[in-house]
Structures are given as C-alpha cells and as structure tokens.
TrEMBL record:
One annotated GO molecular function: adenosylcobinamide kinase activity
A biological process term (GO) from this entry: cobalamin biosynthetic process
SUPFAM superfamilies per record: P-loop containing nucleoside triphosphate hydrolases (SSF52540)
Signal peptide per UniProt: none
Name this polypeptide is given: Adenosylcobinamide kinase /adenosylcobinamide-phosphate guanylyltransferase
Coiled-coil parts of chain: none
Species for this entry: Bhargavaea beijingensis
Organism lineage string: Bacteria, Bacillati, Bacillota, Bacilli, Bacillales
Keywords assigned: Kinase, Nucleotidyltransferase, Transferase
Highest taxon, organism lineage: Bacteria
Pfam families named in the record: CobU (PF02283)
C-alpha cells in the first residue's frame, strides 16, 4: 500500500496521476460515496477519506472498521491512498471538526504503520518517508 499525504491543494492527486500514468486505475473519490466499495480488483486509488468520514461517520471505531474493510478488500500492492494532512494549525472550535481531526490523525498513524511506501507532497515536491 502506498500512502500519499500532504496539505490541501499541494499536488497529491497530480503526483499520483503522474506516477500511475499509463496504468488502468480505478479512482475512488470517497467523499462522493455513501459506502466504500468492498469488491475491488486491479490498481485502485482512494482519495477524500476525510470528507467521507465527516459525512458518513460519528463513531471512531466504526469509521476505522469501514476504512480498513476497504483496505483488506484491495490488493495492497496495487492500492494508493491519498490523505490530506488536517492535523496542523488552529484546533477547530466545532466539536465535529475536532473529532474529524483526531480520527484522521489516528487513522493516518495506522495507515502509515501498514503502508509499504509513504510519500509526502509539499507544494508539488515529493519526499519519500518510507
């Protein structure tokens, strides 16, 4: 599994499109899903987890289970997950936004532990972390 992380509009999707150019890719924008697919094959890119969790979950345990069911259903050698780093800056005043920030932080920790490759994108520049 390859995890690509960076701030909003830092070039994560462009980077992934570039490294996977020429491959047949199923691109899943999770923010547009009411449920994550559980039947996957081939090269898969998952983006927008933060929007998906915000819209579809209020419980951390079920949110984590949902995402990792998706990860288990995919071929990890062909799975790329794009995450937005939302854990920096001012702590949100809104309780749901704080919850989302915390859940995404713990989710990213678990994704990073299980990933074979991690790339941070900083304004279009790629830095391999793992």
């Amino acid at each position: 599994m390859h995890v690509v992380i960076g701030g909003a509009h830092n070039g994560k999707r462009e980077y992934v499109r570039e490294i996977l150019a020429g491959e047949q890719v199923e691109w899943i924008e999770a923010g547009a899903c009411s449920r994550l697919p559980q039947s996957l094959s081939g090269r898969v890119v998952l983006a927008g987890i933060e929007s998906y969790l915000s819209a579809n979950h209020e419980n951390e345990e079920t949110a984590m289970e949902d995402v990792f069911r998706f990860v288990q259903a995919a071929d990890r050698e062909k799975l790329t997950i794009i995450v937005t780093d939302i854990g920096r800056g001012i702590v949100p005043a809104d309780p749901h936004e704080r919850w989302l920030r915390d859940v995404c932080g713990r989710l990213n920790q678990r994704l990073f532990r299980e990933a074979g490759r991690i790339t941070r994108i900083w304004y279009g520049l790629a830095q391999e972390l793992k």
